[in-house]
Every structure is written in structure tokens, then in C-alpha cells.
Sequence to fold (507 residues):
Amino acid sequence: MGLKTALYDTHVLLGAKIVDFGGWEMPLHYGSQIEEHHAVRRDAGMFDVSHMGVVDLRGDRVREFLRNLLANDVGRLKIPGKALYSCMLLPNGGVIDDLIVYFMSETWFRVVVNAGSRDKDLAWIRRHAAAFTVSVTERHDLAMMAVQGPNAREKTLPLLAPAQRTAARDLAPFCGAALDPWFIARTGYTGEDGFEIVLPAHDAAKTWNALRAQGIAPAGLGARDTLRLEAGMNLYGNDMDEDHHPLESGLAWTVAFEPGNRDFLGRQDLENLQRGVGHELVGLLLEERGVLRSHQKVLMSDTAANADDSTALLSGEVTSGTFSPTLNRSIALARVPRTTVSKVQVEIRGKLHTASIVKPPFVRYGKILIPV
Amino acid sequence: MSNIPSDLRYTKSHEWVRQAHGEAPDGAVEVGISEHAQSALGDLVFVEVPQAGRSLSAGEACAVVESVKAASDVYSPVSGKVVAGNAALATQPELVNQDPYGAGWLFKVQTNVSIDGAALMSAADYAIYLADEAK
Fold:
């Protein structure tokens, strides 16, 4: 049996189809994955994300520690509650995990890591924290839910006491606030506005049901995946991993090379790689019927036509692919050789299909952002 | 409990077979996937059915049903020649979810084989098969 979140029984009562995800028994959907997707794009939906790891880092030197540990620079976090997205890198630049770090106070930062990589993350963080006398505490006592969609914030606010409600309403994007007993942040993984709420695990079911009573639709990991892919957001293990560095994973924007004197793990190798990055992560839109899936082979259209010795060099791979419910077409992220071509061929079950290269995100805030 | 109409025959790979009526030529059978199969797949977003005229052997992969999450082959339960594919599924793959035994049929095959043959399960046997599979 896999691990269960505090909301497991609630999901089962709601008729969820439960699947294993990173060792956790999680809801895939509650009936229709596509309807859940549309609920988030058009109104409000909520996800149990308690399988993710909430880790508190405390100590006088915690900021200094994180400026060394993370590729993005927590020196940019000036206001308590402000969040930052970052990769944690191996010395060779491979991505150990991606995470969100919250600046709680000068002696307390909170990081949220992926479920599937939490054990190796914790080991890595602990190994490097010792030198900075930073304490590392995994918060198994907390649950986490993401309430997402154009109406998500409005529908969530009535659950808060009046004073807290004002504070939550006034949160700027990518900022959070400790509103006892919740920690609430205006963050998410769907390309829509909304909140992520960290709360005591024993309050999770009660809060979930109260949010449902507000008209927020339960949504499973299936919809979470189609939403994040439409939003052009990477999934760890698919679009980034230890074998690829951020610059070939669409994550150059998360690596802070400035200030130049900040030494972070992976910096040296990334600086060398920066001069000759051979691959890039691009968005694909399938022009024909069918569904793009991870690991499908991508061929550059001009080389597919005149196969020669260079063909092997000019192929890439779909890293995440799905059917986009908003576009009613198939979309993907793919790692391909740096290119100027606008069309590629993707091999789907032995046949080549044409896809165009587009710049993610595909969809944000309910709007289609690519030409279709 | 899954809906398993008693007038159909079933395969271990969750296709159903019906003796077609009405406009279908004599000896044609209708094929689709079971309620259980569509439920396990989830929302379908793409269905590819065989072209009319194609010859099929029993057990041959001849159609594809794709949900948001995965693609699955559909195998012909009988040998014969395809007389029609369900063209509506090109634009409405969700018909398979909504009405797997009706509007969500996949293709029709003209065959000389009796669908009462031993290789296909009755509704009762399929129910037992599903119960065993769930254990």
C-alpha cells in the first residue's frame, strides 16, 4: 500500500479514481478529467497536493545557505512571504529537483519539493545544511491544497476571518502570508490565478469540504497535468532531470548568474555549458489528429526529407505530451537541437505527423496564447 | 458494478460484439469497447477506426482509443472484412465514454464466424472475468 494524504478518505468518498503517484495514493480524477480541467480554466477547482514535501529551514545563516544551494537567488527575496521558483542542481548542472522557496523570516525559509524526489532532496539539503548550522524539518503534520481558477480567490476568501481575509485578498502574485493556522500563497501550477494553502493535516478534510460548499470543484492529478502543460510549466522527471541542465530544459530564466560573485552549486559547469548549449526545450502543436506523448521521437522536417549522416544529430524527443482540452488539439514540450525550423515531424506509433514549434505557454489566464 | 448487456459477447481485452441489425449487410457484427474499458481509460480524446474494406484476423490490432493519459489498441474479436468505421468518433470521441454500447460503437465487420463461438464470452462469463481481474 502506498502513502496516503490526510484527504485520502475524502477522495474515496467523492468517488475518485486512485492511482499511485511517486509512492502516494492520489486521485487521478473524480469522474471526468476534462471537466475538471475546464472548471479550473473557467471557474475554480482544487487539488490535494499534500504529497509534496514541505520543509522548514531555520538558522541564522539560512539565507546564506540557500544562496549557495539554489540556482536562483534568494537574495532577491526582500519582503517576508515572497516566493521564488528555483532548481537545485548537482555540481555538473543536472537538476536534482525544482522547488518553491518562501521567505518567512530572516531565520526561517520554507521550501516545497516534489513528492517523487523528496527523499533524495532531503538527503541533499541535509548534507549541505550542516556546514551552515541550518536545521531541516520535514512538516509531516501539514497538508496542502491548491485552489485555482479565475474565481478561486473570491470563493476561498469567505473561509477566512475578516482581518485575515483582507490580508489574503491583498496578496500580490507569488507572495504568501502566515494567517494562523493557514499559510496561504498566491501561487500555483495551472496558469490560473489562485491560492496554495498549507494547513494542519487534521483540518484538511473540514477545509476541503468547506471549499467544496463554496462551489470549488475537486480536481485530480490528471487535470493538474493538462493544466500545467498548457501553462508551459515543466514537470520534474519529464521535462527536467539529473541528466539535463536547466539551460536545455527551458529554465535559463531561473538561473541567476548575477551577481557574479554568488557561488552556487552547479555554477561552474553551467557557465561553461552556457557557451554551447546544443539543445532547447520547445513547445509543439500537433497539426493533425492524434496525441503527442512523452518519449516520441521528433525529427526536424528538412532532415526527415533527405535522410543523411546528420539525421541522427537532428532528432529530439517529446518530454511531455498530452491532449489540450482548451485548444482541443495535442500539445507537447520537446527537447530538440537548437533550430530555426518552424515545423517538425513526430513519430506516433510508427507514422510521422507534422507539428509546429510554438513558444509556451500555450494557455494562461483562460486565454489561448499560441496561433492555432 | 459495470453495465454488461446480456445480448452481447465479450473478449478478454474488453471489446464487445453485437450481431448488427438494420442497414448492416448480412453477417456483419458491430464492435466496441465495454463500459468497464471506457471507464478504466477515462475521457477519450482521440479514436482511430479501421477503413472499410480492410481485412482483419481475429485478435488483430485494428483501432486505437486514446484518453488524455494513454493510448490503447483495440483488437478485432473476429476475422472478416470491415464494412464501416464509426465516422462520428473523429469529432466526438467522447461518445465512447457516454454510450459505449450504442453511439460509441467503433466498427462493423462482415464475418462468417458465429459470434456464439467459444472464443467469445457471454455477459455472465465476462462479469465473472471482471470480478476475477479486480481481485
Notes: Chain A touches chain B at residues 17, 28-29, 32-34, 222, 226, 289-291, 293, 322-323, 325, 330, 349 (CB under 8 Å).
